[in-house]
Specification:
CATH superfamily of the largest domain: nicotinate phosphoribosyltransferase
Distance between the termini: 48 Å
Number of helices: 16
GO molecular function: nicotinamide phosphoribosyltransferase activity; nicotinate phosphoribosyltransferase activity
CATH topology of the largest domain: nicotinate phosphoribosyltransferase
CATH architecture of the largest domain: Alpha-Beta Barrel
Pathway: Cofactor biosynthesis; NAD(+) biosynthesis; nicotinate D-ribonucleotide from nicotinate: step 1/1
Function: Catalyzes the first step in the biosynthesis of NAD from nicotinic acid, the ATP-dependent synthesis of beta-nicotinate D-ribonucleotide from nicotinate and 5-phospho-D-ribose 1-phosphate.
Number of strands: 19
Structural class: alpha/beta
EC number: 6.3.4.21
Strand order of the largest sheet: 13-12-1-5-3-17-18
Enzyme class: ligase
Length: 445
């Protein structure tokens, strides 16, 4: 069984609860919603991501025969329960914000409507998938906002927290506007454009730096981007100029050079001057090395002549904000609204919708969270993506989601586009939803 789709990729308490539901015959319809309680410092907005991978998981998730046998051998579960579990399939409905949607705290991003044991069991993997992709998409969007005209490439696989995280990070970054990724599997799986140059080890393995450049150019004539900071960056840039003249009769053009260390701004200026004086005005300067949105903004503010950035570790680990306070909570069961009242973690009950209003310039102006049946002004953000366990045509694919994400970022109010904390975006809880919560609280007392 593929571990990405195995239902054993869960927390033990999901299975212990399921046996309790099974023994009590609790199979009525439940409604769960995923939302983020509050923004972490340094974030003014979040970007919905990971919906299609979630749907793929729900379509394929099941228990293998060997997994049921393993659970049986554990002695924790009854034979009757395990026989029932062997036939588990997701047959529920999913409503979600389209991937690329900008959203804010207390707004449901995904709503699951399914028999209680189904909606319960998927909790751990659902959060596992969506949390990471929302986290990375939201961080990547910040680099896109500070450098909208630059080529941004995901370089983070090697320091991502595992194989799947690296691939999904590449997907999330491309969704929100990165030009591509260095992660080959992400290119194959999602059709993301691939970018790559060479490592310092390639240069070091040759006795002569120019010979290393020459060999690479002839081996990759359509992708000649040369790493020039292994030894002396300016001297290497002069070698590039000489090599360009040598390769010209062969029809090979040097597309760019990459600088990965040192004072990137100053080195970029010096290298740009050398390239221009050598007639290589079309050869780009690409920078990498411990970059994030803050460093990119700083370099651009200095006027550094850098055409693109490889952003790796700090993106794929979301280094400044490594987690979100997100939750997946029961909001309705057997036709009755449910409300958690824990201190600091209370939820708004019932199945909900989010409506968004826009100002005269078309920018986002405010959201209302209310009960799904309400009639509110604005654009409803949650749309159907699965019915009866089957995906709908509303899932438009990653390329369309990327276009939609770009449109969403254009609609952000100006203060929210900043890297520093801005006044909160207005999210209002409808009066009907507030009244329902108050009634449930009163009934509980």
């Amino acid at each position: 069984m593929d571990s990405e789709h195995s239902l054993l990729l869960t927390d033990l308490y999901q299975l212990t609860m399921l046996q309790g539901y099974f023994e009590r015959g609790m199979h009525d319809t439940a409604v769960f919603e995923l939302f983020v309680r509050k923004l972490r410092p340094g974030r003014n907005f979040l970007v919905a991501a990971g919906i299609e991978p979630l749907v793929e998981f729900l379509e394929q998730a099941r228990f293998g025969t060997d997994e049921i046998d393993w659970l049986r051998a554990s002695g924790r579960f009854s034979p009757e329960f395990l026989d029932w579990l062997a036939d588990w399939r997701f047959t529920g409905d999913v409503d979600a914000m389209p991937e690329g949607t900008v959203f804010f705290p207390n707004e449901p991003v995904v709503r699951i409507t399914a028999p209680l044991p189904q909606a319960q069991l998927i909790e751990s993997r659902l959060i596992n998938l969506l949390h990471l992709q929302i986290l990375i998409a939201s961080k990547a969007a910040r680099s896109v906002l500070v450098a909208p005209d630059k080529t941004l490439v995901d370089f983070g696989l090697r320091r991502a927290h595992g194989a799947e995280a690296g691939v999904l990070a590449a997907r999330s970054a491309w969704l929100t506007g990165f030009a591509g990724t260095a992660t080959v599997l992400a290119g194959r799986r999602y059709g993301i454009p691939l970018y790559g140059t060479m490592a310092h080890s390639y240069i070091q393995a040759h006795d002569d730096e120019l010979e290393a450049f020459r060999g690479f150019a002839r081996a990759q004539p359509g992708n000649v981007v040369l790493l020039i900071d292994t030894y002396d960056t300016e001297a290497a840039a002069r070698k590039v100029v000489a090599l360009a003249k040598e390769l010209e009769p062969e029809g090979i053009r040097i597309l760019g050079v990459r600088i990965d260390s040192g004072d990137l701004g100053e080195l970029a200026r010096r290298v740009r001057r050398i390239l221009d004086e050598g007639g290589l005005q079309r050869t780009i300067v690409f920078a990498s090395g411990d970059l994030d949105e803050y460093r990119v903004r700083e370099l651009l503010a200095q006027g550094a002549p850098i055409d693109g950035f490889g952003i790796g570790t700090k993106l794929d680990t979301s280094a400044d904000v490594p987690y979100l306070d997100c939750a997946y909570k029961l909001e309705e069961y057997a036709g009755k609204p449910r409300r958690k009242r824990s201190a600091g973690k209370a939820t708004w009950p019932g199945r909900k919708q989010v409506w968004r209003r826009y100002d005269a310039q078309g920018r986002m102006a405010g959201d209302v969270v209310g009960l799904a049946h309400e009639a509110q002004e604005g654009e409803p953000l949650l749309v159907p993506v699965m019915r009866g366990g089957r995906r709908l045509d509303t899932l438009s694919g990653l390329t369309a989601a990327r276009t939609y994400a770009a449109a969403q970022l254009r609609l952000l109010p100006e203060p929210l586009r900043a890297l520093e904390d801005a006044p909160p975006y207005p999210v209002t809880i409808s009066s009907e939803l507030q009244a329902l919560a108050a009634r449930l609280d009163a009934e509980a007392h």
